[in-house]
Design brief:
The complex is a heterotrimer of chains A (290), B (387) and C (287). By secondary structure, chain A is mostly helical. In chain A, 73% of the residues lie in helices and 3% in strands. Chain A has helices at 2-27, 35-51, 57-75, 78-81, 84-104, 129-152, 154-164, 166-171, 176-202, 212-225, 231-246, 254-268, 279-289, and strands spanning 114-115, 121-122, 125-126, 204-205. Chain C has one domain (18-221). In chain C, helix 1 (3-31) packs across helix 9 and helix 2 (38-56) runs antiparallel to helix 3. Classes of the chains: A mainly alpha (290), B alpha/beta (387), C mainly alpha (287).
């Protein structure tokens, strides 16, 4: 039981990460390979506020979201100057620099990380196991709702205009810089909340937990599931986060298979397993329409 | 998706009920000990050595009649040195495999995260070589057989100033929990003894190019360089030190303790002295058995990581034999352990109240392409863990 | 630290960066793919080189075999995978590349290939050390410097004196145009992958010998570090990459030789990258 709950909790946290990256990359077209940096900033903010400043989980959780949102908006500034592959590499760089700061500035605990982060409590009652999973699932639902809202409303339209053609978006009166920064801030804020949950679920954070490979992993989930959709990132995260666990029977070939699955998916279903016009999604839609 | 998940949960639940009903009260066929270590990813070398060490311990125990006649079974999972996987694996070991106790053959981050799960579930866990000081503070079920970096740093200091008479010392520190703890303890000891730190620098894990730093150390002209790191960084440090003409004595520690250090560093390794708990020249039967069998079975020389994991399993087997299969009994037996001789890394005198092991520590020197005995540190003032 | 040491360290480190990054920049120039799996090709080169060296004892055979196999693997990656996704959004080949990198690296780590441990590559003695009035160049550094020099001259000749080089340049300017003026694009791209990957294989061997260690995850750092080099070099420009390699090596060496690790080497490199991009979004040496 605890095993499945543990897998499901991590899957929920990563689904939020994938959805939040999807807002930035799927809706606004800003490809980022530094998303783990925001994940880490949220985790560290929450960990430090509870362990060092003695806050309780709930205000720290909200503060982590806000702090990460502000930092995310600020770190989104390079996107105003830099486009396409250069932006990919700039965000990658942000990831490395953020990790290095956690590691080299003793204020953040340095290489020894932050230890002794407590699980959240409600009315003096500690949330563990299924209750923590419920909290993570609730946050996932909130993220889904925000994503749906963004993709539906005017802001969502503007973001999509941005993805398709920045110059055209500018021409029809969309303020490109403002929306880019919004996209970065919202995306980062949601990832920050995921970081907070992660820190309190694990009980300890180290700089390396938020390294560049995690950013790659999150991006893989988004693309694997179907970029730009709501269902895609969630399904991508659940499959790719749980896959290495369910592949334990193949022993040490887990990651070879993981890599192979990614390659095959991109070859045969580049729009993602549940992306628009993907084989599976078309089948499901036909089934529903019948 | 959600209904599928529910279905899986229900299935597993019913399976568990069936299994629980099926197991009667009869004597168990085997005692299960869990192990998690990274056999894939960047840490695969250490994870593989850890697995080897644990397998050998199980072989040794079973060849000697098991635990009170019951065989030991090792359940191993790969955690890729990632904390989230270690947490999943800890749950799997506890709930699905129902291990009596577990051994961590992984790094600090993963070990610390998993230790919380074991503590919550009341399953004893022994960390083999993870060094983070806070690991054992998780709770009364979490123990460690690796030497604390704080102790090892102090012993390194004693080696430098007391044995080698160093007056001017350069510190080159790897920037993780291991290096940081070592350097702090080392510095405290040597400065108290009146030696001078003439150079200090830290470097990132995995660094290969030390020439710019080594050139600066050369200018500082120290007697001794205390350089922490793992075998791959260490090999580059000693090779490049020789290249730039830095002739000071290099002191390393257990991170160097691998046949791969000797292979990669080649001639440059000659004369390097390290502090470690695995004494290659020991005449203790268990140590010789371990070193010999490891080589025979895996066609590879044993390293510190393998030896520590071997010892973690050995000490758990002892505690199960003494205290039974219940967690309280195991914890009590570990707490009362005295002069445990069945460890490849030398006798364990006892565990401290903070669940850290107290044992003599050795220094080994590289001579003729192999580690050999150099000194032993047995002074309680040096080797007693601080908690 | 003396000027001589800084110069020597910059030259060797810069050569290593160049050898790893040049293949990547060639691929990027034509296909605009962020080819992370290039680092896996580099590891394959090192592995093949070591295996041949152990078998034959010849460094030169090892180098040639490594280049051949790596080049071949590169072509297979192009024809078998990237070829089918040239019209997809760029994120698709990027994720594919990540998958390939994971797949190859994980397989290489298996006991029947390279295993989890590091291996020595003791071929340094093939080269002499050279003593100059200012100091000595150790043999491993002599190897890196001379062979990088050879590679440079060869690249220069191929790019300026052959039809192939001209075809590459044309394709880098505009792939469709190049196709329409009678350049056999498929062949040109395949050959581009062949040469770029062969150079990565050579880099694997040279770095393996230089640090006397070869292992399955040796591509981890180059997989991202090489991108810093090619971005600074303007992405797709070989001369730009050359300049960027030495500039980055110089910056790192001087910083480490004067103040030390304010931040890890990679973070320093990325800080430089972000800083440069803010002022020149097209890269330091891009047009």
């Amino acid at each position: 039981m605890g095993y499945l709950i543990s897998i499901a909790t991590f899957a929920c946290i990563w689904a939020v990460l994938a959805l939040s990256l999807n807002i930035l990359t799927g809706y606004a077209g800003q490809v980022s390979l530094g998303h783990a940096a925001f994940f880490g900033i949220g985790a560290y903010a929450s960990a430090m506020l509870t362990v060092k400043a003695g806050w309780s989980f709930w205000p720290a959780f909200v503060a982590a979201i806000l702090i990460t949102g502000v930092v995310g908006g600020f770190l989104g500034l390079p996107s105003l100057r830099v486009r396409h592959d250069f932006l990919v590499l700039a965000t990658m760089g942000i990831n490395f620099v953020v990790i290095a700061i956690f590691k080299y500035v003793s204020f953040f605990g340095g290489a020894l990380g932050i230890i002794g982060i407590k699980k959240p409590a409600l009315f003096g009652w500690t949330l563990r196991g299924p209750w923590f999973l419920a909290l993570a699932a609730l946050y996932l639902v909130l993220t889904l709702w925000i994503s749906a809202y963004l993709s539906r409303t005017w802001a969502g339209l503007a973001l999509t205009a941005l993805r398709e053609d920045e110059d055209a978006a500018e021409a029809v009166g969309v303020s490109v810089p403002r929306f880019k920064i919004y996209a970065f801030a919202i995306s980062a804020a949601l990832a920050g909340g995921a970081g907070s949950l992660y820190a309190h679920f694990l009980g300890s954070v180290f700089p390396d937990h938020f390294a560049f490979v995690e950013s790659i992993g999150i991006m893989s989930m988004v693309v694997f599931g179907g970029i730009g959709t709501l269902r895609g990132p969630v399904v991508g995260a659940f499959i790719l986060k749980a896959l290495p666990e369910y592949l334990r029977f193949v022993g040490d070939y887990r990651y070879a298979i993981y890599g192979g699955v990614l390659v095959l998916m991109m070859l045969f279903q580049p729009q993602g397993i549940l992306g628009d016009n993907s084989w599976l999604w078309n089948k499901i839609r036909r089934r529903i329409n019948d | 998706m959600r209904s599928q998940k529910l279905l899986v949960i229900l299935l597993v639940l019913s399976l568990l009920v069936v299994l629980a009903g099926g197991c009667g009260q009869s004597k168990p066929k085997s005692y299960k000990i869990g192990l998690f270590s990274p056999t894939t990813g960047f840490a695969a070398a250490d994870g593989t050595s850890a697995l080897h060490g644990a397998e050998l311990a199980v072989q040794y125990i079973n060849d000697h009649g098991g635990i009170n006649g019951v065989k030991v079974e090792l359940v191993h999972y790969d955690d890729a040195a990632k904390p989230d996987q270690a947490v999943n694996v800890a749950h799997k070991l506890i709930e699905q495999d129902k291990v009596i106790a577990a051994v961590s053959g992984s790094y600090s981050g993963a070990t610390r995260a998993a230790s919380a799960v074991f503590q919550d579930a009341g399953v004893p866990m022994v960390a083999a070589y993870a060094v983070h000081p806070e690991i054992t503070k998780t709770g009364d079920k979490i123990w460690r057989v690796g030497t604390l970096a704080v102790v090892e740093g102090k012993v390194g200091g004693a080696l430098a100033v007391d044995k080698l008479g160093a007056k001017k010392i350069a510190l080159l520190t790897i920037d993780n929990d291991f290096g940081t703890s070592l350097a702090n303890a080392f510095k405290e000891y040597v400065t108290a003894k009146g030696a001078e730190i003439v150079f200090e620098e830290k470097y990132p894990l995995g660094e290969k190019e030390f020439r710019p730093i080594l050139n600066r150390i050369k200018e500082a002209n120290p007697d001794v360089v205390y350089a922490s790191g793992y075998y791959n960084e260490a090999a580059n440090i000693v090779r490049q030190a020789k290249e730039v003409g830095l002739n000071a004595q290099i002191i390393g520690q257990e991170g160097y303790d691998s046949p791969k250090f000797l292979e990669l560093a080649g001639d440059a390794a000659e004369g390097v002295i390290i502090t470690t708990d695995l004494n290659r020249d020991s005449d203790r039967e268990i140590t010789q058995w371990f070193i010999k069998t490891y080589k025979e079975k895996y066609n590879l020389d044993a390293d510190m990581v393998g030896a520590s994991t071997f010892d973690a399993v050995m000490v758990l087997a002892y505690a199960i034999e003494k205290g039974g299969t219940k967690a309280d009994g195991i914890v009590k037996a570990l707490g009362e352990l005295k002069d445990f001789e069945k460890a490849a890394t030398g006798p364990f005198y006892k565990f401290t109240p903070g669940r850290e092991v107290m044992r003599p520590l050795g220094a080994q020197v590289v001579k003729g392409g192999a580690f050999h005995f150099f000194a032993e540190f047995d002074d309680p003032a040096l080797i007693t863990p601080p908690w | 630290m003396s000027l001589w040491n800084i110069l020597l360290d910059t030259l060797t480190q810069g050569s290593i960066y160049f050898l790893i990054a040049v293949g990547l920049t060639m691929v990027y120039g034509i296909l605009k793919i962020l080819h992370i799996a290039h680092a896996a090709v580099y590891t394959i080169g090192a592995g093949v080189g070591l295996a041949v060296f152990k078998l034959t004892g010849s460094f030169w055979l090892a180098l040639i075999a490594a280049m051949l196999v790596s080049g071949l693997v590169g072509v297979i990656i192009y024809r078998g995978v990237y070829f089918y996704m040239l019209d997809q959004p760029r994120i698709v080949p990027l994720i594919t590349s990540v998958g390939l990198f994971l797949l190859i690296e994980d397989l290489l780590q298996k006991p029947y290939l390279m295993g989890p441990y590091q291996h020595a590559f003791p071929a340094q003695e093939v080269f002499p050390s050279i003593t100059l009035p200012w100091g000595t160049i150790p043999n491993a550094q002599v190897m890196i410097l001379t062979l990088t020099g050879v590679a440079l001259v060869a690249l220069y000749l191929i790019f300026t004196r052959t039809r192939l080089g001209l075809a590459w340049q044309a394709a880098a300017q505009d792939r469709e145009m190049a196709g329409s003026v009678g350049i056999n694009l498929n062949r040109a791209i395949a050959l581009n992958f062949l040469l770029g990957s062969a150079l990565a294989g050579a880099a694997g061997v040279l770095v393996g010998v230089f640090y006397n260690s070869v292992y399955a995850t040796m591509g981890d750092v180059p997989s991202y570090k090489a991108f810093v080099v090619i971005v600074l070099g303007g992405m797709g420009s070989v001369t730009g990459t050359l300049a960027a390699s030495f500039l980055l090596a110089f910056a790192e060496t001087v910083l480490l030789a004067s103040v030390g690790y304010v931040l890890p080497r990679d973070a320093i490199a990325f800080l430089v990258l972000i800083f440069v991009l803010m002022f020149r979004p097209q890269g330091l040496l891009g047009r």
